[in-house]
Amino acid sequence: MRQVHCQNCEKLIETRKDLFTTQIFFMVQAYCKQCYFDKIKKVSSLAVSNTPLNGRYSNFLAGLTFVGLILVYFAEIEYIKIPLILVLSLVLFMRIYSFVRFERHLPF
Fold it and tell me: Cα–Cα distance between 105 and 102 in angstroms, integer?
């Protein structure tokens, strides 16, 4: 298995409960629990999302986004279809990328 280290303190992250992944300028980065609450949770802007990509809320959003993609696909308004599909797909792909890059390498 591949090891996952915190971006801030370089500490080895051993379980998924200690892992927090965040999106900073379209880059997904891993943080340990302590660094996430100290550094990232306090900051919120367009560039930095303070909602972790690997939490329950993000899983809920990924499911909701998938349903939204299906609904948009069958929508009859053609000029809005492509932009909505692109934006909704971005949310879904960030969640999938977070899982593939970090979470699958860690035990529960």
Answer: 6
